[in-house]
Amino acid sequence: MNTIQLGQSDLHVTPICLGTMTFGEQVDEASAHAILDRSLARGINFIDTAEMYSVPARAETYGATETIIGNWLRKTPGARQKLVIATKVAGPSRGMPWVREGSGMTAADIVASCEASLKRLGVETIDLYQIHWPERNVPAFGTMYYDPAKERSQTPILAQLEAMATLVKQGKVRHIGLSNETPYGVHEFVRLAEQHGLPRVATVQNPYCLVNRVLENGLDETMHRLQVSLLAYSPLGFGLLTGKYDDSGIEGPAAPQGARIAKYETVRKQRWGRADALAAARRYNALAREHGLTPTRMALAWCYTQWQVASTIIGVTSLAQLEEDIEAWGTTLDAGLLEQIDRIRWEMRDPAV
Q1: How many domains does the chain have?
Q2: What CATH number does residue 126 fall under?
Q3: Which of 81, 173, 334, 336 has an alpha carbon 20 to 30 Å from 184's alpha carbon atom?
Q4: 193 located within any domain
Q5: Each residue of 50-90: pLDDT tens digit?
Q6: Is 184 tagged catalytic?
Q7: Looking at beta carbons, which pairs linking 139-147 to residues 24 or more positions away fall under 8 Å?
């Protein structure tokens, strides 16, 4: 795999990124270390984590994923020098009081969270430091519409950028990014950075998969014109696009045991647990089989080859899943299959928005 430059930064990453939010909940430390070993051996130079991981978020596992990665880095000579490490500062609480006091995300919160992440990871510098979700009110995590009545912003974007600039100046962060962002947010972060000589966002990490293509409704143009790179997360629709729920559904005695979407009620209540999301996924999965592909291979190949995507974040719970996801790289989908994919999207839209 060739590497891709992220935005206007000097970061060059592989087009596959290892997501780690299962480490510390579904994946124990020894298994996580084995996955990290194999990922590095397969040539992946990019890993993504966050202060709030593992997921589903609990007070007991807050910061666990970064700690697991830090322990692995300390015992793996040369690994740090080969890797681009991305992590994230949590936005406003969203029902997680253990992350920080108060309901907002202040400039001081950004600095404190970064320093805590550096300590857990055991590194001197974070290569890409991202705001996990906006400080202001936005439609995200299953909310479809913007509602100005719910505005809660306490820390202007300029103040957030100034906090990031402090971290960059101190050498604690190399580049910055956003996550779960909107076109407005991307434009404002770039505009204010350029106006005030502050760090420019290199990336946006947003969901992008066959059952959620809302990025294509304007955000992709924004990012292309502003030279901000997409890190696509949930390319398998939280497992819906693997086919493992096609016969069983996502809950009940027949559902796969231990699967994240089947196991945790909070996940089922969000976008991935909707009945119409599963219905759409079943259509895509059947289409893949008709063309001699596994659902996983088709869904990943689609994401891997979209012009909008710089790097695709894969989240795995086993070495077998890691190998399957990497082996899908290089798969091309012919024009006829892509046309059929677009017809399903036209009919069923984006049910996992």
Answers
A1: 1
A2: 3.20.20.100
A3: 173
A4: yes
A5: 999 999 999 999 999 999 999 999 999 999 999 999 999 99
A6: no
A7: 139/182, 140/180, 141/94, 141/180, 141/270, 141/271, 142/269, 142/270, 142/271, 142/353, 144/353, 146/182
